[in-house]
């Protein structure tokens, strides 16, 4: 199963929102004790379509809402992580969002096909210290979006627990 996204307008905020909403609607119930090597392949077509595939399909829910088994289980085939990718409107920038909803650090191998990425990029990460982190008016935020400059796209990335990670690289 593959998740196909076309090159429609996408912003980092919308990717954050999609990843968080998916996690809140279909929460992860815990970390895997022996996580398999997870690989996500991002294929960029000449038409601008971006397809994300992986080697770790989403499991069927143990207790589906309403008692019915859904025809398609939510999330990308990169369980327990969720991966989404899109091109910018001008098709010059690839953005990859990776959500780790588990309570353990996870690693994923990223393969990019169909385009070469630049030797520098950016990472925006939102990773609270605990699942109970809150943001209250008048108090210091317990979770913030951190921006980081990156060198070449790493082949394998390690993701902090409960984190949303957005990688952005220009295409060559």
From TrEMBL:
<protein>
    <submittedName>
        <fullName>Alpha-L-arabinofuranosidase</fullName>
    </submittedName>
</protein>
<keyword id="KW-0732">Signal</keyword>
<dbReference type="InterPro" id="IPR013780">
    <property type="entry name" value="Glyco_hydro_b"/>
</dbReference>
<feature type="signal peptide">
    <location>
        <begin position="1"/>
        <end position="33"/>
    </location>
</feature>
<feature type="region of interest" description="Disordered">
    <location>
        <begin position="51"/>
        <end position="75"/>
    </location>
</feature>
């Amino acid at each position: 199963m593959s998740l196909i996204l076309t090159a429609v307008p996408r912003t980092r905020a919308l990717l954050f929102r999609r990843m968080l909403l998916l996690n809140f609607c279909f929460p992860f119930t815990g970390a895997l004790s022996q996580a398999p090597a997870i690989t996500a392949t991002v294929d960029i077509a000449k038409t601008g379509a971006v397809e994300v595939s992986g080697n770790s399909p989403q499991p069927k829910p143990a207790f589906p809402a309403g008692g019915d088994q859904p025809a398609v289980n939510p999330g990308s085939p990169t369980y327990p992580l969720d991966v989404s990718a899109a091109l910018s409107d001008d098709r010059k920038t690839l953005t990859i969002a990776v959500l780790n909803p588990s309570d353990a650090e996870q690693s994923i191998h990223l393969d990019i096909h169909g385009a070469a990425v630049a030797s520098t990029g950016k990472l925006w990460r939102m990773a609270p210290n605990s699942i109970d982190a809150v943001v209250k008016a008048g108090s210091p935020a317990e979770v913030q979006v951190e921006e980081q400059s990156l060198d070449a796209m790493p082949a394998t990335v390690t993701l902090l627990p409960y984190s949303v990670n957005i990688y952005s690289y220009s295409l060559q």
